[in-house]
Amino acid sequence: MGTIVVGVDGSAGAQEALRFAASEAKLRGDRLRAVIVWHVPTMAYGGGFGPAVSPTEFEDNARATLEAALAAVGDEVAGLEVEQAVRTGQPALVLVEEAQDADLLVVGSRGHGGFVGLLLGSVGQQCAQHAPCPVVIVHKQGGSAHS
Known about the structure:
Elements: E1 3-7, H1 12-28, E2 31-38, H2 55-72, H3 74-77, E3 82-88, H4 91-98, E4 104-109, H5 122-130, E5 135-139, E6 145-146
Parallel strand pairs: 1-2, 1-4, 2-3, 4-5
Antiparallel strand pairs: 5-6
């Protein structure tokens, strides 16, 4: 049994990526590893001395976001072996690490965002350049995928 890793962040694009990854995992008979990455944003540090909000709150929020994303595609992941990974760090680096033993890495695309050079999104672009396995970038409009 292989593994398909999918990045989840609560966005519509990531939700489409999750749907695609679940469908692909069913076709291949693979397990699905859904990964969400969190960090304490610089703005959360009150006065520069420490976080104004506990880091566990960010982790709890990430875990809740991942669980909600999986619940939203309940029928699509039914019958699959699903691993959940809640990690801290830089999203592209963590996804590439999580994909070390994977057969496929799936991420969503947020679209143009005003910068043509960032068409794939910075996370998708980094994953496509550095992942040790094939990468599929799923676009929100129409759920099309490109590898």
